Amino acid sequence: METGSMETTGNSATEPVWNGLPRGLLRMRRLLLVVWLGLLTIVVGLVLETFAGLAWASFALLPLALLAWGWRMLGRNWQSWRYAERADDLLISKGVLWREETVVPYGRMQLVEVTSGPVERHFGLASVQLHTAAAATDARIPGLDPAEAERLRDRLTELGEARSAGL
């Protein structure tokens, strides 16, 4: 399975083993980008051509420029998402310009959900949502293979129960 992370490490016992997201997430997001911006281009072109003339209809190319830029940005964003399971916590890293690394201790997890909307199901993807006591620290891993999402949910639930037993 091809993943977005090019930086999978794990040579040292102290370094986490990072897992990237499946390529299906990138395909889904790019398809949605093409559909929405393609429709916007057509609508803007038709409206401008009808009411303002053919010269103004050339402004319909702006969404196409946005599509080209968004295509590249989605690829970079997809490559930035990764997660790692450590002994006591789960690490989630994302972001291109502003890197964000979330550490979720297993003992703090209250609920782990696997969700999959209609578009995600069409592409064979699922998301894992982690809920903790503090609402601001909820974490999400999008675009996983459903089997990996269920494995991660079961493992995190098991580790959460084991780590919170002393509370």
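(the above was protein one; protein two follows)
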Amino acid sequence: MTTIAPTRPRLDWTGIVFAAVLSIAIIFPLLVVGTWAFTEVWRYPNVIPQQFGFRFWGQTLGRPDVWAALTLSLQLSTVVTLLSAAICLPAAYAFARLDFPGRSILFFSFLAGHAFPKFGLLIAIAAIFLQLNLIGTFWGVVLIQLVGTLLFMIWIPVAAFQSVDRRMEEAARDVGAGPFRVFWSVTLPQAGPTIAAAVLLSFVGTFYETEGAWLIGAPGIRTMPVLMISFINNQMVIQFGAVLSVLLWVPSFIALIFARRVIGGGAFARGFGG
């Protein structure tokens, strides 16, 4: 009796090369910025810094405008995410479950803002906000950043509600459960992780949003990304911008850990149709 030796899977060298190039393109800039954040002396032509330290961390964190910008960014992200959830989630449920005239046109109108160059759209909105005295105000920035969350908070929850097993909902109704009980006990547990992914993406996207905050909020509203750009443009010391960049990574790392531990990677894939 002869045995067939198991065949070894072929290596996809093209995929490996693309993955390596992509990793270098992403990791190398992060490594350089992270190194500058903890560098006190780094002169050309030395490959590695001559002196590491936390001097620029102390100077950056000692500035009151940094803490004011961080607090403002967290407030804006929280308010925008809550408003977006209150407006978009009921709309997403209606788009996913109800059939009404103009449904498709209205659905794509929510997403049309992402089909055109963003800066041109912001200029047009800024002209309207100027007439409404919303330029340079907190709520002006909230409204402009709310537009940026529509893609995440409409598209992903619609996919989440559409992926719910309707047979389980019908079974619950057959045993006497009311509409609210069906939604709370059957629909929400299935759609909840994907909706949580959409909320998380909206919060992080709002925290890092720069163009709208700069165009609508200037000069009174300075979020962390806007302050970082100001540091990079106006400060001759690279380390100040590098320290702020590293500080801006913190929400992303927290969001990734939360998504990994609580939501699960599959929720993101389901939200984007995977």
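Reviewer note on protein two: The chain has a mean pLDDT of 83.
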